[in-house]
Amino acid sequence: MAISRIKATDPAHRRGVLLGNPGGPGGPGLQMALLGHAAPALTTRYDTIGMDPRFVGRSTPINCRWKTDTFIRSAGPNRHTFDESVALMKELAAGCARGNRDLLPYATTRNTARDMDVIRAALGERKLSYYGVSYGTYLGAVYTQMFGARADRIVLDSAVDPDVYGPGLFSKNAPALTAALKHWAGWAASHDKEYGLGGTTAEVLATVDRINQAATRRPLRVGAYRIDSHVVPYLLFVRLYDDSEKAYAGFAAEVRVLADAARGASVTVPPSLKETFDGLFTGSGATEDRAGTPIICADRAASRDPETYFRDIQAHRADEPLFGPMTRDITPCAFWPTAPVEPTTTVRNDVPVLMVGADGDPATPYPGQQAMHRALTGSRLLTLPGTFRHGLCLAAGNSCIDTAVERYLVGGTLPNDDAACDTSANAAG
Q1: Looking at residue 39, what is its pLDDT?
Q2: What is the mean pLDDT of residues 225-253?
Q3: Domain spans of the chain, in order of start
Q4: From CA 16, how far away is CA 152, in angstroms rounded?
Q5: pLDDT at 425
Q6: Domain 3-60+105-166+348-425 is classified in which CATH homologous superfamily?
Q7: Under 8 Å CB-to-CB from 268, ≥6 apart: which residues?
Q8: Cα angle value 42/44/48 (rounded, 5°)
Q9: Predicted local confidence at residue 37, as pLDDT
Q10: Sign of CA dihedral 111, 115, 121, 122
Q11: Is the previous residue joined to 337 through a cis bond, with omega within 30 degrees of 0?
């Protein structure tokens, strides 16, 4: 297992160790030792620790042999395109099984929590402090459930629903994604002169729908790539994690290219999409989803009947036409060669925890964050309202969030109650 550490700069006032996880699952975490660079007060009180979780990154990895970076695809518009998804998921499951079958049952969050506690003990610490974002919130919650007496100061940023996390982790995301897309469309409409996507929110959303419908009829030609109905919703999904001006502008420029391709114009691949396309179609990009799939499939059993997924998609086509066929699509876990060796963790405890989240988060929707909050009865939840982004601490530029996190980690002060942070406290730009 690969571990990184930056020692506290003030040994006389050192509190202990602070371990971080960036999410995924499958995200390498060695860089989390740099947390103190973003919050200098932490560097005096903690040794900051990063780790690549078991089977991820520079820890001895499970190598899923895929020609794509991710299993996330839309099931498309009909039974034929769904059957294409089924065939791909069978292929991806087999790609993980080759050479790894004996390891797959042990790629669990529970085992990663055990590894965290081994790190704590190896460093001679009585307790462990922790910061986790996205999937890292589930890992942190599982640690509090398994090793609550050894949990010190725990911060969970953009929490997942502990009762949904697993092979269907995105199954409830379509409404939040739709709301985030609408929010971006309003921004794009106010910048119609620059991007020409439509002068109203409804017109911009109609442009997006035309792109998706065109890709359903015939793959869009974008440079050397062919973008079909399996891929368009994914391209939208991965651009909705950040609602900053810069991110929205980049997203609008990419949609402009897709809109031109949808009307038959000759377009080249925007530099911002080159790595994404290469990863989708060659598997040359980030490996996080490949590394994370064994964890998802080992944590919770999935239905092995493709019909259950198709029926679910069909039942929600009317109310989730764009994102539902993606968020409810079948996954490689339906064809996984091994079954979970432990029951899924039930998270229910009163360990003190600070939670932060945006109520418009498209990746870990707010109802799921609230479910985690209810499960952790000792937690306090700070909410950034009207914000459509994933990951807040030291990233959203909100002084209310950042100050509360620092106050808790350095001074041990939890807010007295749940609260909403003022978005006017966001840093300029």
Answers
A1: 81
A2: 97
A3: 3-60+105-166+348-425
A4: 9
A5: 57
A6: Alpha/Beta hydrolase fold, catalytic domain (3.40.50.1820)
A7: 222, 223
A8: 55
A9: 77
A10: positive
A11: no
